[in-house]
Amino acid sequence: MKVILASSIALIAMSAQGQVTFTKDVAPILADHCQICHRANTFAPMSLVTYQEARPWAKSIKAKVAAREMPPWFIDKNVGIQHFSNDVSLSDQDIATIVKWVDSGAPEGNPKDMPPARQFPDEQVWQIGKPDLIVNLPKDVVVKAKAPDQWPDILVDPGLTEDRYVEAVQIIPTKGRQVIHHIRTSLVDPDASTRHSGQLDGNVALEAGEMGVFLNEYAIGKGGDVFREGAGRLIKAGTKVNFQFHLHSSGAETPTNVALGLKFYPKGYTPKHASWLNPIEIWFGVLAGKVLRRGSFSSLADLDAKVLAFTTYPNFQLVVVDNASRSFPTLDYLRANDDRVKVIRDERQFNYSAINNVAVGQTVGDVICLLNDDTEVIAGDWLTELVGHVLQPGVGAAGAKLYYDDGRIQHAGVVLGIHGVAGHSHRFFDRLSSGYFGRLQLAQNMSAVTAACMVVRREAWDQVGGLEEQNLPIAFNDVDFCLRLREAGWRVVWTPYAEMFHHESVSRGPDVVGPRVTDFVREFDYMQKRWGPQVLRNDPYYNPNLSLDAEDFSLAWPPRVSYRR
């Protein structure tokens, strides 16, 4: 009897010690990871600061955190770089604590265990210092008490009368902060027209995606953007600012307005690395990270300056291949403006594979990035994300998520067998779509990725001998290269967290019209003979029940798999 009693007492003591409560265990997690959004007077649907506020949402909180839907952080926990200074995701232990709290009835615990209230920076303060220019909307945007989400574009003329270089930029909501999900600003050429200017009252169907060059973005908890030393954005006299909003009704009619603050460099100062708005027509090609690409009509502002000034990866060389262009002033600019830039001349008839092979031979880095001249950098961490994957054991190449001009997906990895050789996964899906079983949110192995933006481990490049220039001078060379990598034992990874626009074939036009059709057919036939149906019709990362006639993950009809036994 004594033994049983002792055991019972020990069991009870252990159970009490292991109880998870809101005040002691859950509140610190919510403060560190969730309250930046979930607090009073923000866009979030509820505050999670006190027990009384969080308790009604306990089951929903459990469901969202267990599925890793909240806090929003979509980097694969098993692939690539994992340590980020702004990582708000929950650890496995955090998730287990919240689940255990809810499953045990969501007890409050001892109020004395409650941590001190988190202090948040004042979002009404100019973190960049006093701006030299503040731009507001000409009148408030009124969000109705009950209405669908809105994405209005509003074009504003800030009255710039002279060219100035921007050193820092910040957006502050001055009215209606609680209905603003995010704001995106962009710079619009003085002579450009606008699709949506002045549509403030919600009586016209507005679509996201106004024209212009991205400037900065506001979201809850985000402060100002300060360009690194020696870098800046040139805003030409007469440039307009487009404000793109995501607005959400909150149950009360709410007037909304914002202030865009611009801090300029002193007059007469020119940053070493500068991006500007007005495009310069040039013929050149680019490959970043360690490599290069073909000559084409492009914008020096959007390509060279963005790669050099706004790529956060700290150590890279830019090799530009001048493929028989005639834009000599532009080439002189490229050579003179940055010691990381190297320009090489190639007079041969356009051969994508040969040009890249020559350019790679001019570099010395351990990692190579093939980057087309018709791509456009969206975020500065694109190269860091790709290099992080390539440096993982066994990974030979990594590819990016590419968008058409209208924001729809152009490339999310390559699927073998589609249309005879290969097609792009999720082509034409919406930019925000989660894709087939969430694949557009996951870094994953693929059979191939496009060389429009592909990072390659040099060891892997050298092992397989680069791109096939004899038989695949233009089309399918990237697919063939990736297949040879996998044949040699390397993995190919695609990540949705390195994003770029791909103005596909802007420089040369498509390869399936006019005289290029003959070349395309010859390369198509080579791929079918080189790899055969056993490889091309059996992509290990594509369900055999899915179609090879479309890129939308639809079911094959007639079925490709027999169920007869």
- Tell me the domain tally: 3
Shape: globular
Q: What would the CATH topology of the largest domain be?
A: Spore Coat Polysaccharide Biosynthesis Protein SpsA, Chain A
What is the CATH architecture assignment of the largest domain? Alpha-Beta Complex
Q: Any low-confidence stretches, pLDDT <50, length ≥5?
A: 1-17, 195-210, 277-302, 506-510
The chain-level structural class is alpha+beta
Distance between the termini: 64 Å
The number of helical runs is: 12
Structure description:
There is one protein chain. The radius of gyration is 27 Å and the shape is globular. Helix 2 crosses helix 5 and helix 4 (58-66) packs antiparallel against helix 5. Helix content is 23%, strand content 24%. The protein has 565 residues and is α+β, with helices and mostly antiparallel strands. The chain has 12 helices and 24 strands. Strand 20 and strand 21 (422-424) form a beta hairpin.
What descriptors fit this protein?
seven-stranded mixed β-sheet, Spore Coat Polysaccharide Biosynthesis Protein SpsA, Chain A, disordered N terminus, alpha+beta, 565 residues, Jelly Rolls, 24 strands, 23% helix
Question: How would you briefly describe this protein structure?
Answer:
This protein is α+β, with helices and mostly antiparallel strands and 565 residues long. It has helices spanning 2-17, 22-33, 51-54, 58-66, 92-103, 301-310, 328-337, 352-360, 382-390, 458-464, 477-487, 516-536; strands at 133-136, 141-143, 153-156, 164-175, 180-188, 213-219, 225-226, 231-235, 240-247, 254-264, 273-276, 281-284, 296-299, 318-323, 341-346, 367-371, 375-377, 395-403, 409-411, 414-416, 422-424, 444-445, 453-457, 491-502. It contains twelve helices and 24 strands.
